[in-house]
Amino acid sequence: MMRRVRTRRWVWRLAYVLIALIVTLAMMLPLGAQAGDWPGPDLLLCITLAWTVRRPNMMVAPLIAAVLLAEDVLLMRPPGLWTAIVLLGSEVLRSRVALARELNFLTEWLAVSALMVGMELAYRFVFAMVFLPQVALGYAMLKVTASILCYPVVVLVSTWMLGLHKPATGEIDAYGRRM
Question: Which keywords, in A-to-Z order, does the entry hold (predicted)?
């Protein structure tokens, strides 16, 4: 029983890494985006936050940090900045998992949406502090809006197709601790 739970946990972690690799490589492809096009959602952010809410014991901080740091390097962003912000956001969600278990999806969606907006504003604030060039605020907020609208789709796919659900009240992990 214990071995099966640990194996399942590692399968989910490997699935997260593979999905992150596919999403990151797809973002690097020259797919004909032109100036003035609508920005797409940050799928990796949506997946990270949705899976952290659904199964916080599978989404450990070193895994999230390694995947997002690799994404920072591959997408030529300042290494570690977006990683640190997303890691802090996911830890905020992880600390509220007992509360999130009791909430309905609309409340969860609003909380994650507020977190996404806060993470984007923190990212822009750090860029402004060191005078780095950045995209217009409207364009960045369009990207956040696209991510917010994509979050329910990611949750739907994760829940119905992949079977990743929130921990039930009183559910325990492989070590006998409450989730």
Answer: Membrane, Transmembrane, Transmembrane helix
